[in-house]
Amino acid sequence: LKAHKLSNETIFKYRYGESLLYEGCIDKATEIFTELGNDGDTDSLLRLAEISIKSENYDNAKTIVEKLISENKENWKVYLLAGTLSLTERNFEQSIRYYRNALDYKQNSSVIYQSLAISYYCLRNRKKSLRENLKALHLNPYNINALLTYTDTILEDDNQNQKALSNIAYKLDDYVQAFPDEVNAITRLAHVYDETNQANKGIELLQNKSKSIDNSGMWNDLGVLWEKRKSKTAMAFYQRAIKLSGGVEKSSNDRGASIAVLNMVRMLIDSGSYKEAEELIEEFIENSPEQYHLKDEVVGKLALNHIRVRVFQNKIQDRKSVV
Question: In the prediction, which pLDDT does 314 show?
Answer without folding.
Answer: 57
